[in-house]
Structures are given as C-alpha cells and as structure tokens.
C-alpha cells in the first residue's frame, strides 16, 4: 500500500445513477472561461484535448521525432478546429516520452558516477538477484554508467554523520578528469548522504563550479537509504537530464514564439510542474503520459458504487494498467523501467508491450506471439499504407471488421485494408493457420491474454477482486478490446469516457500541481522524539512548498513509511499535522493486515517521512450535445466465441449519439480518435457528458 497524492478532481458523471453534476464539473475556484490545452505524446500518435468555452475539442496527429514538432502541430490543429488562435490559450499542459525513451533505447547522456571509495560497483552489484531465477544464462540490464566512468572519492559518512571530510583538491582533480572525458552529466551518490549530505553537497558544489554539465546529487534526488536504489535513481536522473533540458527548453522557446504559455509538464506522480522544476528533477518525468491517463480516468468516472476502477490504456506501442480507489490513482515508490530501479513517487502503472502497433510473430516453437516490438508511427501497421509489411494488432482489428475501410484514424489517416489482409495471410502461412481471418483471431486472442494477465497482476495478485471494479478503457485501441477483456475477467461494466481516444491529454487538463519530498529517519516509532520528527517534517514541507506555484493554495499531506522490526520493506500510511505515534502505529497495523492478511504485536519502526504539496487544479466541463441521427450503417465483424460466421454489427457515429441513447451489441462506435466495440450480449448507454457505459449481459465466449 502507498499513500496517494490527494488528486480528487470533481467528476462529470456517475456510473451509478448517470446523473450530471450540478456544479458543472469545475472546482469553485476555477475560471470556466479559461482556454486550456493538454498535449500527450505517445509512441504512435500525439493526442490533444482543448477546453474552450465549456466545450472540449480533441485532435490526434502522428508523433514525430523530435517530439516538439508533433506537439505544436497537434496544438495548432486543435486550435484551428476550435476556431481560435493559439495565442488565445491561457494554459498549456504536456506529457511526453523523452525520458522513458532515453532509458528504453539507452539514448541518454554519457554519464559519470561519483561515489565513496570502495563503492564504485554498487550499480553493477545491485541486489545480486537474477531476472530469471532458474536461467543460468540470464543477463542483467547493463548499468547506465559503465565502470570506466565510475569514480571514487576519499570520504566517509555514517548514519550518525561525517567521519572523514571530503578533500576539495581531490574533487577539483576529479573535475579535471571528468572534463577530459567529455562526460555530459554527473551523478553523485556518496555513502549515507541521505543521513548527512555535507560531504555530498561539497562535492556537488565543486563539480558544478568546475564543469558545464548537469550534476545530480542523491540527497537532492532521493534522500532515502538503500544504496543501490538511491544510486540507481540518481544515475537515471543524470542520464535523462540533458535530453529533458534540451527538449523542454526547445518546447518553451517554440511555445513563446507561437504566443503560447510555457508548458507545464506532467510528472510520474500524477501532478504537473513548471518547466524549470522538471528540468532540475528530470527523473520525475518518467511515465508522465501513462500517469496523465490515470488522472483523466479518475477525473471522468465516479467510482462510488464499485471497489474502484481498473484503468486500461491501449495505445500504439503498449498498454498501461493501473488502479483508482476512492477517486485517487494508486501510487508507488517501488518501480522499475527496463530493469532500472526508480524510487521517486509515481502513479502505479503496469506496462506491457501490447499495443495497436505491436507486431505479431511466430516463435521458434511455432507459437503465435504479439509484441513487444512495435511498428511505431512510421511506417506503422500495414494498413496505414506507409510501407509497413509486418502484421500488427491494428491490422488484425481491420481484418476482424472492427475498423472499417472507410475509417479515418486520427480523423485523417485512411486505411489500406488489402495490405492488412496480405500481412495477416503471410502470418497465417508461417503459423500454419488456414487464413488471414484465423491469424487475425489469433492475434486478437493473444494480445487480449497478455493484457488480461496484466490486469490480474494489479488486482488478483494484490488481493483485489476485479469483478468488484469497473474497467475504464481509453487510448486509441483500448475501447476495441475492453469488453473482451471484461468478459474474461467477469467484469460487468466497462466505461469509455467521451475523450477516451485522448484521455491522457484530457487528464492533463484535470491534473493537480504536485510535489514530493522524502527523508530517511530510521527510528523506533514508540521511542521516537516527536519534536525531532516534526523538525524533519518542517524541512520536507518547506521543500515541497518552495516548488509550488502558489504556496498559499497548496494542500500538504504528510506520511510515514513504517515496518515491523526486522522486516525489509515498508508500507506508507498517513501522518497527522501533529505527529501521533499511536495513530500512525494503528494505521500501519491496519495497512499490513490489508496487504498481507495479518498484523503482528511487534515493535514498529518509522523508516522514512514524506510530504506532498498539492495545488488543486480544476477539471474542464465536458458538455455533450449529440444531435442524434448517429446510424452510419452495418458491417460484418467477427467476435470471440461467435463461431466462424461473421455478425452484422451496427455502426454508429459516437459523437452524434444523444445523451440517454442505448446501444445493443453487436455494434461499433466510431470516433476520430478511437473505435469502441460492443460485442453481442453487451449493451451501452450514453451519459449526459458523452461517457459510454457498457454492461455485460452474459458470457459470449
């Protein structure tokens, strides 16, 4: 369990009574005339959501390299559709994949690591575990910093303070060496710097004076114990920092030239921050896009009559799954990206390489596989007609009839159905299947099985019954697969928000501003001096308020990481404004019982103290005025469990469906940004804000 960021924006509609909110969906402090835009960069498409005059305008354009080109193209496209000049925008929020791409592709900076003498190899040693316990040839991910760029300094700090000061001359000599090596970034992680950062601060100060490259110090990035995780997180920050600095700086300049406000950047913790803050704390931008999607789901759907929401975001490259409980996105401080531990707070998102652009292939044993390799945006799936020849999930959806030949992906990209069929025919030959249709069925089934396992990992494996949750589907491909996933999980309700194809972009409009700080204290809870803990909290609160744009408007939450004496890992529980050891202990016992099924009559240790400052945002009003007359026609489509024969599915223009309209499956609802499949035995209803709620009427598998 982790203590969540208090992100609880007002919501437009309830999945229980379908009644609109009487307050218009905005917080009392919001200015309903604000013109705001959110732009989220994905692997295939860049999504845009524009709130203007109480209306929501959405757009989707192909992602570009560099990313800022597509961002500005999408921004201009949405403004053109809304009939406004970009200079009229009041706010601009943005989520990107720059940092995560740098990690996945190992395209970050030439980074040096400075550490305490004798601890040069901490990144390589790690936790001495293997990716696969029984695979003797399993390889660990290569450390971000190779051994030849890892350097030691003579110093010694213990958990009780500095024992051997750092030698300034040695640090200056090291700076000269780093300059000669042409390093592009420096990470500093000295032993026990979380407890006493004096030596590390001196090293950082000297290197910043001597070098013209960014320097990341562990006590500024993550003031927590555990040397490997602290060093890894600091190395990640340094590794992606030049790329983030260049990208954000360029985007700020381009926005200024266009008369657009400077972008506020989505962080992995689900909150937005100003450009300078994220340029100084680059590691916080990992997984910013998926975090925005979860925030958008929490802002769009009320979960009051269910255990919570399972959010399912299927884009072009991957699928992201997360949980929302009590209106808040679940967060974690225990995450990995490509085998690299990152311990900054982030929305707890599980990602699997199964998206619309994921390539289907046959392994050495003859089994059909899907992903993780993706066709990307260029050339993309075969059906894009841009030169792609490998079969993808999107091509399978075309052959199955879910995406029609007249469908314009992103509102402008026409499809080459024959190219999709030819790609699936080649896959069928390789897999020993009878036809392109059989291959398409197999691709759809394998992709769904992969995503179902991911949903089970965040529900069943954590003690949650998915049948008590609603599944919120979004992303360009999510609504096509959601009902099939719900069938396999026995989930009765699927919710597809009106801006479902661009929900991450919409989430940027609804996001709070949020900042986190942590410090290790490592003390017995029962004997800890409350005054000492309050002193630490005062420092943490000062740190997070210093980053807030409006400290007076910020809401501060305090938390404590606790464990039983002798345990290796902690649970995070809320802490009151005045630290109450008994209340914290009681909350920890309850949290431990929820997480593990039991509590102990043992001493409790408080390991870390945390503070989060949140400046509440305001959700844009979503007004839906579907004029009716939404019937487009019918199309043959193939559904799981329906046998070999196709079914005639009714095709609707979703945006024209009026509030209160009901849809019976089999049906297909088309939008510019996404397509929703309503299988046989499922029914759907359009709510007052345009949200579609699908209800399972039986098992059609």
Structure write-up:
By secondary structure, the protein is of the alpha/beta class. The longest helix is centred in the middle third of the chain and has 31 residues, at 227-257. Strands 15, 16, 17, 22, 25, 26, 33, 36 and 37 form a nine-stranded mixed sheet that branches. Among the domains are: 35-102 and 246-285, ATPase, nucleotide binding domain (Nucleotidyltransferase, domain 5, 2-Layer Sandwich), CATH 3.30.420.40; 107-235, Rossmann fold, CATH 3.40.50; 513-615, Dna Ligase, domain 1 (2-Layer Sandwich), CATH 3.30.1490; 631-696, no CATH class. The two termini are 35 Å apart. 55% of the residues are buried. The protein is 29% helix and 27% strand.
The total count of strands amounts to 37
For this structure, the CATH topology of the domain at 107-235 is Rossmann fold
Computed structural class: alpha/beta
Unreliable residue stretches: 1-32
Q: What is the strand content?
A: 25-35%
CATH class of the domain at 107-235: Alpha Beta
Helix proportion range: 25-40%
- What's the main sheet like? 9 strands, mixed
Total helix count? 16
Region (Disordered): 1-39
GO cellular component, one term: cytosol
Organism: Haloterrigena salina JCM 13891
Domain Hydantoinase A/oxoprolinase: 230-513
């Amino acid at each position: 369990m982790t203590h969540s960021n208090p992100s609880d924006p007002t919501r437009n509609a309830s999945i229980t009574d379908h009644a609109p909110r009487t307050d218009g969906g905005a917080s009392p402090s919001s200015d309903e005339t604000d013109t705001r835009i959110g732009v989220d960069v994905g692997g295939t498409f860049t999504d845009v959501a524009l709130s203007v005059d109480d209306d929501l305008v959405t757009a989707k354009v192909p992602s570009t390299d560099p990313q800022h080109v597509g961002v500005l193209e999408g921004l201009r496209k949405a403004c053109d559709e809304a009939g406004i000049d970009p200079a009229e925008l009041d706010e601009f929020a943005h989520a990107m994949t720059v940092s995560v791409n740098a990690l996945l592709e190992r395209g970050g900076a030439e980074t040096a690591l400075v550490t305490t003498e004798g601890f040069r190899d901490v990144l390589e040693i790690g936790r001495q575990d293997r990716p696969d316990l029984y695979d003797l040839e399993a390889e660990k991910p290569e450390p971000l910093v190779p051994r030849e760029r890892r350097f030691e300094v003579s110093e010694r700090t213990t958990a009780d303070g500095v024992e051997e000061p750092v030698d300034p001359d040695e640090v200056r000599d090291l700076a000269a060496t780093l300059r000669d090596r042409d390093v592009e970034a420096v990470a500093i992680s000295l032993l026990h710097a979380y407890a006493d950062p004096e030596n590390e601060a001196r090293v950082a100060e000297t290197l910043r004076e001597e070098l013209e490259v960014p320097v990341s110090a562990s006590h500024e990035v993550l003031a927590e114990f555990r040397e490997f995780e602290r060093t890894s997180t600091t190395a990640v920050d340094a590794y992606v920092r030049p790329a983030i600095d260049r990208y954000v700086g360029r985007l700020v300049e381009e926005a200024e030239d266009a008369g657009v406000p400077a972008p506020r950047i989505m962080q992995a913790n689900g909150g937005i921050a100003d450009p300078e803050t994220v340029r100084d704390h680059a590691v916080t931008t990992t997984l910013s896009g998926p975090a925005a999607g979860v925030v958008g789901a929490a802002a769009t759907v009320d979960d009051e009559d269910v255990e919570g929401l399972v959010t399912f975001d299927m884009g072009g490259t991957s699928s992201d799954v997360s949980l929302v409980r009590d209106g808040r996105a679940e967060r974690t401080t225990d995450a990995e990206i490509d085998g690299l531990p990152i311990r900054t707070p982030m929305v707890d998102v599980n990602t699997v390489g199964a998206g619309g652009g994921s390539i289907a292939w046959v392994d050495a044993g003859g089994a059909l596989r899907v992903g993780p390799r993706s066709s990307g945006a260029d050339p993309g799936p075969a059906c894009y007609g841009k030169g792609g020849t490998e079969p993808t999930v999107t091509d399978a959806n075309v052959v199955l009839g879910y995406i029609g030949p007249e469908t314009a992906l992103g509102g402008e990209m026409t499809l080459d159905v024959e190219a999709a069929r030819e790609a699936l025919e080649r896959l069928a030959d390789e897999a020993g299947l009878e036809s392109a249709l059989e291959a398409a069925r197999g691709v759809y089934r394998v992709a769904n099985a992969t995503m179902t396992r991911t949903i089970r990992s965040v529900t069943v494996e954590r003690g949650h019954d998915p049948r008590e949750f609603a599944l919120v589907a979004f992303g360009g491909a999510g609504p096509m697969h959601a009902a099939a996933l719900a069938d396999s999980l026995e989930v009765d309700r699927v919710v597809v928000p009106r801006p479902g194809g661009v929900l991450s972009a919409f989430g940027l409009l609804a996001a709070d501003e949020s900042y986190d700080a942590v410090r290790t204290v490592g003390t017995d809870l029962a004997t800890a001096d409350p005054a000492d803990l309050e002193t630490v909290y005062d420092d943490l609160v000062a740190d997070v308020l210093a980053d807030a744009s409006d400290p007076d408007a910020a809401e501060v939450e305090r938390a404590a990481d606790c464990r039983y004496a002798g345990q290796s890992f902690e649970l995070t529980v809320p802490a009151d404004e005045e630290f109450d050891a008994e209340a914290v202990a009681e909350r920890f016992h309850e949290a431990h019982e929820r997480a593990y099924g039991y509590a102990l009559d043992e001493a409790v240790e408080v390991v870390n103290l945390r503070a989060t400052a949140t400046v509440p945002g305001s959700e844009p009003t979503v007004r839906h005025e579907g004029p009716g007359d939404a019937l487009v026609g019918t199309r043959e489509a193939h559904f799981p469990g329906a046998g070999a024969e196709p079914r005639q599915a009714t095709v609707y223009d979703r945006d024209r469906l009026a509030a209160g309209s009901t849809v019976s499956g089999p049906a297909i609802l088309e939008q510019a940004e996404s397509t929703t499949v309503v299988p046989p035995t499922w029914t759907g209803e359009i709510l007052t804000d345009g949200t579609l709620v699908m209800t399972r009427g039986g098992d059609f598998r």
